[in-house]
Specification:
By secondary structure, this protein is of the alpha+beta class. The protein has helices at residues 2-58, 195-211, and strands spanning 60-73, 76-87, 93-102, 113-120, 131-138, 144-154, 160-163, 172-173, 185-186. The strands form two sheets. Strands 3, 4, 6, 7, 8 and 9 form a six-stranded antiparallel sheet that branches. A hairpin with a 5-residue loop joins β6 and β7 (160-163). The longest helix is centred in the first third of the chain and has 57 residues, at 2-58. The chain is rod-shaped and about 115 Å long. It starts with a helix and ends with a helix.
Length: 212
């Protein structure tokens, strides 16, 4: 009888051990599933944030450069170099830099010409200007020859963006890279105003965003 009781106790211990192992396995599986769901939710939220950031960045429409002669003195020709853009999003943008590199300067260096605004509100810069302007002096008469130009800013989520091509519909993430080389000149004439063409473009972007 002692042997039988010992066998029963051993069997009970074995069953208990199996139960504990199964419980631990189920617990681990449940934890793994919960972690998987949490990671999937995090990836989904990150994708949604990225898409929202891209949509808002597309609403900052960068239209290119222009220049306006101001005068001439012993130092050279004075001009107003302009970078045309408007924040058409419904949120402000921050640390907005309009930058330009004259021909003969390295694009790896800080821009020779620049203007900065801490914040640009929705709808700004507004008509009739729609640009940031910087006073520049050159040895050659206008139009101004530039090696590169760029507009860069930070959105409300802390993401940085830039545009360095005329009428660049999709700004790119900025991480400190130099601007793309520009092969033209800053035209003396003011670019055609955005009103109709750019409003149509904005409407197409909005319709595309709503359909996705």
């Amino acid at each position: 009888m002692t042997t039988s009781m010992a066998q029963q106790a051993s069997t009970a211990d074995w069953i208990a051990a199996i139960g504990q192992a199964a419980g631990a396995l189920f617990t681990a599986a449940a934890v793994a599933v919960a972690l998987g769901i949490a990671l999937a939710d995090r990836r989904r939220l990150r994708r949604e944030e990225d898409e929202r950031g891209k949509r808002n960045a597309r609403m900052v429409l960068v239209r290119g450069t222009g220049s306006h002669p101001v005068g001439q003195d012993e130092h050279g020709y004075q001009s107003e170099l302009r970078i045309y853009f408007t924040n058409h999003s419904d949120r402000p943008i921050f640390n907005v830099y309009a930058e330009a590199w004259p021909v003969g300067t390295s694009l790896d260096e800080q821009p020779r010409w620049a203007v900065h605004s801490e914040v640009v509100l929705p709808g700004q810069p507004a008509e009739p200007t729609e640009y940031f302007a910087m006073k520049v002096t050159t040895k050659e008469p206008p139009p101004i020859s530039i090696a590169a130009w760029r507009l860069r800013w930070t959105d409300v989520d802390g993401r940085q963006w830039y545009g360095d091509e005329p009428r660049q519909v999709q700004p790119l993430p900025f991480s400190g890279q130099p601007p793309g080389r520009y092969t033209g000149r800053a035209a003396e004439a003011t670019p055609t105003k955005a009103s109709r063409g750019w409003q149509k473009l904005i409407q197409r972007i909005n319709r595309s965003d709503r359909s996705t």
